[in-house]
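Entry for the shared binder. Reason: the reviewer on the internal report wants the predicted structure included alongside the sequence.
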Amino acid sequence: MKKQRSHGKRSSLPGREEVLAFIAENPGQAGKREIARAFGIKGNDKIALKALLKDLAEDGLIEKHGKRLMRAGDLPGVTVLDVTGRDSGGGLLARPTAWDELSEGNPPRIEILPPRGKRPVVAGIGDRVLARLDRIDEAQYNARVIKVIDKRKNAVLGILRVSGTAVRLEPVQKRSEEVALSPDDIGEAKNGDLVEVQVSRVGRHGLKRGKVIRVIGSLASEKAVSMIAIHAHELPHIFPPEALKEAESVKPISAKDARKHEDWRDLPLLTIDPADAKDHDDAIHGARDPDVEGGHIVTVAIADVAWYVRSGSAMDAEALKRGNSVYFPDRVVPMLPERISNDLCSLRENEDRPALAVRMWFDAGGRKTKHEFHRIVMKSHAKLAYTQAQAAIDCAPDEKTGPLLKDVLEPLWEAWRCMHRGREAREPLELDLPERKILLTQDGTVDRVVVPERLDAHRLVEEFMIQANVAAAETLERRKQRLVYRIHDAPSLAKLESLREFLHTMNLSLARAGNIRAAHFNQILGRVEGSEREELVNQVVLRSQSQAEYSPANIGHFGLNLMRYAHFTSPIRRYADLIVHRALIAALGLGEGGISAQEEERLEVVAADISLAERRAMQAERDTVDRLIAMHLSERVGETFDGRITGVTRAGLFVTLAQTGADGFIPISKISDEYYHFDEPSYSLISADTGLAYQMGQTVEVRLAEAQPVAGALRFDMLSQGRPTKANRGAAASRRKPHMAARRSSARRGRKR
């Protein structure tokens, strides 16, 4: 309790206002016993106090929650909140989760205080939290988060299926069950609508029962499949009016303001992006260093988003809420309004644009010797696609690249080859895991799945961006300016031990002595390159790695083998980069739009928010791809496919199809009638009868048994036999426990039923 009044001996009870004031000062903590103690009420006077409290309750002035009392309309001292957004200073705002059910009118303003302590509890927008409240006045509270709790577990998102009087909800989540609804419980929803259903009853038998509580919209068109992921992951996708109004009011940089920037419009910077890119936030240039033999000067210019999107603005608040742009095969959910992302900040060909540029000097060995940042006005001299730029270097220039070849493109490639020598000396982690891309037809269905060729043009742009990111982190650290780093921790000891056990089954070893580096993994990958084990080992090494994230505390980037690294090169689509831009502007005195004191104070919270937003976006993108491919394959149930085992668990096998990259599951009961032992070190399921195994990385033939497009789920039947492996040959009998045979017989009987 905040206050305990001591009133000594009293000849009479406290007045109604005194009792109400005490309850207000101790929300959710004051009961009859606490009031009696505070006012010195004893003996028979407690009966009169009980009557007074009853009168206050009947008059609607107080409410009873268990043994605790509250003024009507007050919030409990500890309550559940939904974090809804940020104020103009970047602070988190929340509202009581139960406000709509318990109260009328507008909820009070609740500000989430910054986390503190050795183990701070960090909340983000969209979280549901348990918080301790401190009342400021009648309409405002401060809140300290105690813990982040799960969201409602009894609300299900799905597609409504109506057939006569039969109504079912087809859930969008994998491994979720259908929900039955009464026609009276669907409101205005129609067949094919994406809806949210409150599960109201779960019986021992039959389907769950529910009621539609929100209609999101029709999904009659396949083009709307990404909307499932948008709502399932609660991605902010509609800009608030104030952000759109702000974006439309922004004017291109004026001649007067341009004079505050350095004029680099004559430098032949160019953009190299995917052919279908709509925004261009980086431009590059390379040339020989006239003062250093074999050295090169590299320039990277990045769209100056901070010039247009200022800290505390409506656009800034929404950008932080989104954290990053999200890319689906059929649409983009941008971090910034199109007026900014696709227009004013996009480095369009032959148009003046403000930019932050870094010029870097490399010696003949590809080692960066110095760098400097500038705030400039630039003009992109050419917009090229990766394939277009690569074709020109490969002696097939077109009308656009031909005139650029000798003076722009060839020096650019020479600079990259120099930088590549430095990369090889640094030895970052070099995993070879091809990425698939879905190509859609005009109606939004899957046309085909391709694996784009990995070109030197991709590697060139990637290395230019990496070095620019390093330069940003180094500059800010040197200037003692706080920033958000991009960090990547070394693998945990547990994951390393698991990896060593796996490699041992393949007669491979991983160094134990000293601090492990990315180079140690590259040695392993080099030993299996070109063999049938290559993809398997790449997958297992990837799984052993930690997840990259954002943090104001630097631990380096393990995968890139860099001590200082920050994201600087994509401020149109990543909020982390915008923070780094503002930090550079402030640290180097480059003019307007620098980082504010409030932002600096809140970097821990911002870093946590955007790390969560990144993971949310990645999962939403993966789920959409799964749904599109499941929809594509739904008419091919019963057909056979070639695939590769990409995951092994006690429950069964995950298989990725070779042609489409579709992922599906084979329950252990659908492999065969044998009993299988899960051998974790070798990522295998091993037959207790024959000793044959199914191992991660193994190529197999499967039959598509079931497709659930809405959930993005595929189930396969195994057609291939297991294979002998050195790790399990002759070992099945020693692994089998006495009770396994009985379990196997029971399982067989169950399948026969």
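Summary line for the report: Residues 1-11, 100-104, 727-753 have pLDDT under 50 and may be disordered.
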